[in-house]
């Protein structure tokens, strides 16, 4: 079942993100990976900044989370993670389809250039890579990420983006 996450879910969101983000170890640049990948304070900051998390619940347990953030003319998919033990079961696809259906705005997604599995997942679900000459401007306009992350990331867009 897909449901809106609540304050009581923040610990589970934190645990899911940090469990799933272990896939980035030895894949993304060493200077961008740390453990935990996202601290509890960073998660709280993201929520205060308008990231609304949705979760997929099975047998009373959150197995995946995905955030959406309204940025005026676009929406961003943020922090899409599924517990390592539940990957490849359709949880991510269900969450993404739910969030895509929740807005009529174009959707942008930023991810690591080296995260081939993530790029493949989004492309399989209808998103396309934004040309590299537009990526930087989009990351600066809609995200708050350091220069090193801009250099090592890609942006994907829904078909209704420009």
Description:
Strands 1-2-3-4-5-7-6 form a seven-stranded mixed sheet, with helices on both faces. The protein is α+β, with helices and mostly antiparallel strands. The protein is globular and about 45 Å long. The longest helix is centred in the first third of the chain and has 11 residues. The chain contains six helices and seven strands.
What is the fourth-level CATH superfamily?
A: Gcn5-related N-acetyltransferase (GNAT)
Largest sheet data: 7 strands, mixed
- What is the domain tally? 1
Distance between the first and last residues' Cα: 33 Å
Number of helices: 6
Overall geometry? globular
Strand content: 25-35%
Features:
alpha+beta, single chain, globular, 162 residues, seven-stranded mixed sheet, 7 strands, Aminopeptidase, 6 helices
SSE blueprint:
Blueprint: E1 2-4, H1 10-20, H2 40-48, E2 52-58, E3 61-70, E4 75-82, H3 91-101, E5 107-112, H4 116-124, E6 128-129, H5 132-142, H6 147-151, E7 153-157
Parallel strand pairs: 4-5
Antiparallel strand pairs: 1-2, 2-3, 3-4, 5-7, 6-7
Organism: Cohnella xylanilytica
GO molecular function, one term: acyltransferase activity, transferring groups other than amino-acyl groups
Pfam families: Acetyltransf_7
């Amino acid at each position: 079942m897909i449901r809106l996450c609540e304050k009581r879910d923040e610990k589970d969101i934190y645990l899911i993100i940090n469990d799933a983000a272990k896939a980035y170890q030895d894949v993304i640049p060493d200077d961008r990976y740390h453990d935990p990948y996202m601290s509890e304070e960073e998660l709280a900051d993201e929520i205060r900044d308008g990231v609304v998390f949705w979760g997929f619940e099975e047998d009373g347990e959150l197995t995946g989370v995905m955030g959406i953030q309204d940025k005026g003319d676009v929406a961003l998919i943020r922090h899409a993670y599924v517990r390592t033990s539940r990957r490849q079961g359709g949880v991510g696809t269900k969450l993404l389809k739910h969030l895509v259906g929740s807005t009529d705005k174009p959707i942008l997604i930023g991810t690591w250039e080296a995260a081939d599995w993530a790029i493949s997942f989004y492309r399989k679900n209808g998103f396309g890579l934004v040309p590299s000459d537009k990526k930087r401007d989009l990351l600066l306009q809609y995200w708050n990420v350091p220069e090193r992350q801009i250099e090592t990331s890609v942006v994907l867009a829904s078909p209704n983006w420009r």
